[in-house]
Design a protein that fits this description.
Layout: H1 3-7, H2 18-21, H3 47-63, H4 69-72, H5 89-97, H6 103-107, H7 111-116, H8 122-138, H9 164-183, H10 191-194, H11 203-213, H12 217-220, H13 229-237, H14 242-252, H15 260-267, H16 271-291, H17 293-306, E1 309-311, H18 312-318, H19 333-341, E2 345-347, E3 350-352, H20 356-370, E4 376-378, H21 379-384, H22 390-403, E5 407-409, E6 412-414, H23 420-431, H24 437-442, H25 450-458, E7 463-467, E8 470-473, H26 484-494, E9 498-500, H27 501-511, H28 516-523, E10 528-531, E11 534-537, E12 554-557, E13 560-566, H29 569-573, E14 577-578, H30 582-587, E15 594-597, E16 604-607, E17 614-615, E18 632-638, E19 643-647, H31 655-663, H32 674-680, H33 690-699, H34 703-711, H35 713-717, H36 723-726, H37 733-739
Helix pairs in contact: 3-8, 9-11, 14-16, 15-16, 27-28, 31-34, 33-34
């Protein structure tokens, strides 16, 4: 076509019909392919024009596989860059791989040749034909498009005459239908293609239509003239010798290939000879695959069904012949086609084009383009990148993404779940509401600790704690929760240095899951003071109101203090523990301060940041020797600022022994009596009456010690006389009463 034709305005001058642009729509002479082909071409950009182009593409694929592109589209201009005709990326890649750069490179190619190219399916061919047809139409000049010389030679030959029984029946029914439709003026109706049979049609016409629709493949094909894929492969294998078949089964079709050395020993030949046999056997079957149209079309159909990835179960349901076992070798037909064609890979129940690894990589690349800032994407959007749509496509997408290691939750895929931080961020992004640490880990597919997640979230700038244990994404802009004390300070600051307790409770408890009693307790302790229902910051340091000797479970030793605690699960998990305020006095720490005590296992923290002082984790002290959960132990603070944890001595049932165990008295007391030991542990003089010792333990809340002292009172009173008498000091009233 010369340059004047190329430069002509498409559609200029007289109007042209579809058959003018695509002459083969009217061949053979005297018979139109479609009734609309003689109508004028619709205007550019209309839906009708695009619909006709797609129908032309469909007709070309159905009936003109042996035609060249030039014969189908005689108006296609020469020298045009194929990159400019709007091909999809996949189609463009296909042309690039096969050396097609301009329209001159494609004009001489038959459609069947394009379909035979590696990794080319029907969808890609349809796109290529549509774009070529559209380009041809855009450059067609009225009166200058002719049938390409010799194109009639490409008209496919008629199929062989089929058996007369079903053929004559369907011919009669088709003739009956056509005559009736013409007689009522419905010659343009296409009932056989779209099922548009008028409801008012006569019964005998409807019966004829039903007979045509009920024709089955088995009515046309016979077992003598038709074979399944498995039988075709079996017939080809039957022409090989036993060694070739054995090599194919053991090396090509096996899940794990047998070594050539092993096969050589089996057949008493060298390893090199077995390699030659394998190469030849592969070549023979490869030639069969490339030359046998049924096998080749089956592979193309298989690839077309897969798209990028699909489960083997789905494929076998759609193409049952692939699942049939090949007689003689007991492997499914798909295994033979997969290993020989290499157009598809089957692994772990998945079919992938061209292989599983590349599709996994493509899946990851696609997900990167559609996820939000937290790695979350919609399942349908993910499936669109895999060529999966519809309900069955969602099932395939969900299963494939799970196979690739992604987390699928509801209708979304989570791509970043390797760390608890990323996983939590994805869940929050998905649910769009604040969640507790436990609620987050409950949604993890693998068990995780809520406490470890809290620690991780606290250090991650993407999160805000918006309640005592509720976490949100920082970008949501929700008010940040720190602790009750900070919230009180914030309210005092907002209200010029003081705020009513009632207003404080209403403000904090209304926004956060904090009880009124907790707010009141914090507002009444350091660093706050409360007067007449008004809370303000206190002046000076808070006082330690209870002395150590008055504190329950806190015992004095010769060189320090021992505080008895019950070991809990939290201790073993590494959590800190609350201490009485008297500990702050012993350690001489003010509110807001932390000290580090020395120990055999390293520094031990003690602080006073909240309402009560606290000890840091003592977990390492509980390991050797093991101190079980639910047992008692002493937290020992020595006068030299050293720290230790001592398990309580085992209780024996003897009151005096058990009393000494509960107060942490050493077994070797250097001659000190039990009475003196229990008295000095709470700051009493060694010569006070037993009744006073029992009363003091009762008053400080150590009822367990008091009960044991009552049981052993007689023994305690029989111990040696007090030092008060031996020094000539007059007895007290209590001493006199004890003697009465």
């Amino acid at each position: 076509m010369d340059n004047d034709v190329l430069d002509a305005e498409p559609g200029a001058g007289e109007s042209q019909s579809w058959v003018d642009v695509f002459p083969w729509l009217g061949q053979p002479p005297g018979r139109l392919e479609t009734a609309w082909s003689v109508r004028p071409v619709e205007e550019e950009g209309t839906d009708a024009r695009e619909e006709r182009l797609r129908e032309i593409s469909s007709l070309a694929m159905k009936k003109q596989w042996s035609w060249t592109v030039g014969a189908l589209f005689p108006a296609l201009p020469s020298g045009l860059d194929v990159a400019s005709i709007g091909l999809t990326p996949r189609a463009a890649n296909v042309f690039a791989r096969n050396g097609v750069v301009t329209t001159d490179d494609v004009r001489g190619l038959e459609l069947s040749t394009i379909l035979d190219w590696r990794n080319v399916g029907l969808t890609t061919v349809a796109d290529i034909i549509f774009r070529l047809a559209d380009t041809s139409l855009a450059h067609a000049v009225p009166g200058q498009v002719d049938v390409v010389p010799g194109s009639t030679a490409h008209i496919p030959p008629q199929v062989e005459q089929l058996p007369s029984g079903w053929a004559s029946s369907i011919t009669n029914d088709l003739t009956l239908l056509s005559r009736w439709f013409y007689s009522v003026g419905l010659s343009d109706l296409e009932p056989l293609r779209n099922g548009a049979m008028p409801s008012w049609a006569p019964e005998w016409i409807i019966d004829a239509y039903r007979r045509i629709q009920s024709i089955r493949v088995s009515d046309i094909a016979s077992s003598q003239t038709s074979r399944t894929l498995a039988s075709i492969i079996s017939d080809e294998l039957a022409q090989m010798d036993d060694r070739s078949i054995a090599v194919l089964c053991s090396r090509v079709f096996a899940d794990e290939a047998e070594t050539l050395d092993s096969l050589g020993r089996r057949f008493a030949v060298t390893r090199e000879r077995m390699r030659q046999i394998e190469v030849k056997a592969r070549s023979i079957l490869g030639d069969v695959l490339s030359e046998n149209e049924l096998l080749k079309d089956s592979v193309n159909a298989w690839v077309g069904l897969i798209g990028l990835v699909r489960s083997m179960d789905d494929i076998v349901q759609l193409l049952p012949a692939l699942g049939e076992s090949v007689p003689g070798i007991n492997v499914p037909a798909w295994r033979v086609l997969e290993r020989l064609s290499r157009a598809v890979e089957v692994r772990d129940g998945w079919c992938a084009v061209p292989d599983v690894a590349s599709v996994r990589e493509a899946t990851g690349s696609h997900l990167v383009t559609i996820v939000d800032d937290y790695g979350v994407a919609g399942l349908q959007a993910a499936g669109a990148g895999l060529g999966c749509d519809g309900e069955s496509g969602d099932v395939t997408t969900r299963a494939w993404l799970t196979y690739c290691g992604y987390v699928v939750e509801d209708e979304y895929v989570l791509t970043r779940t390797s760390s608890v931080n990323d996983y939590a961020a994805a869940i929050l992004s998905l649910h769009r509401e604040a969640l507790s640490a436990q609620e987050l880990v409950d949604r993890f597919i693998h068990p995780r600790s809520a406490s470890s997640l809290r620690n991780a979230l606290a250090l991650d700038s993407r999160f805000n704690r918006v309640d005592r244990d509720l976490w949100a994404l920082r970008e949501w802009g929700l008010q940040k929760y720190t602790n009750i004390r900070s919230l009180i300070i914030e309210q005092i600051s907002k209200n010029n240095g003081q705020v009513k307790l009632a207003d404080l409770i209403h403000e904090i408890s209304g926004k956060f899951s904090v009880s009124a009693s907790s707010v009141s307790a914090y507002a009444s302790s350091a660093p706050f003071e409360q007067r007449a229902g008004v809370v303000r910051l206190a002046e000076g340091d808070p006082e330690v109101r209870k002395r150590p000797h008055e504190t329950r479970r806190l015992m004095r030793r010769d060189n320090g203090w021992a505080y008895r605690v019950v070991i809990t699960k939290e201790h073993h998990r590494g959590s800190g523990s609350v201490a009485p305020r008297a500990i702050a006095g012993i350690l001489d720490i003010a509110h807001g301060e932390t000290v580090q005590l020395s120990s055999r296992l390293g520094p031990q923290a003690a602080s006073w940041m909240g309402i009560q002082p606290t000890f840091g984790t003592i977990r390492r002290f509980l390991l050797e020797p093991h101190v079980a959960e639910g047992t008692d132990a002493f937290l020992v603070i020595n006068d030299d600022a050293s720290f230790n944890v001592e398990p309580i001595k085992k209780l024996t049932g003897d009151p005096l022994s058990d009393v000494l165990a509960l107060i942490g008295s050493p077994e070797d007391r250097n001659g000190i009596s039990v009475r003196t030991a229990v008295a000095s542990a709470i700051g009493l003089a060694p010569d006070v009456p037993v009744s006073s010792i029992i009363g003091a333990y009762t008053d400080r809340g150590d009822s367990d010690v008091a009960e044991l002292l009552l049981k052993s009172r007689d023994c305690l009173e029989l111990e040696p006389s007090t030092t008060r008498r031996s020094e000539g000091i007059p007895p007290s009233v209590d001493d006199i009463l004890d003697l009465l």
